[in-house]
Amino acid sequence: MANLEPEDADPAEVARSIVDVVNMAYGKRPFRVHIDPVNDGAEVVNMVADRVRSEMYRNIDLETLLTPKDNSQQHNNAHSK
Description:
Number of strands: 0
Oligomer: single chain
Number of domains: 1
Mean pLDDT: 86
Largest sheet: none
Helix content: 40-55%
Distance between the termini: 53 Å
Number of helices: 3
Radius of gyration: 18 Å
Strand content: under 5%
């Protein structure tokens, strides 16, 4: 597998992507972030899997699992008691 990795691949790109996601507003964070210097097609495969998962959840009436739920108010109330 190491043979597939480009010589200019930068491991720090992972850290930068983590910082970018953490800095995003609530509800704007992506389900998945791709860092793929090899460009092996994983992003396309994951997009298809995400679409199929979304359709399945909608078909079984679980589409509420596809978006984040804001529990911050409930969390704050529990800690203020």
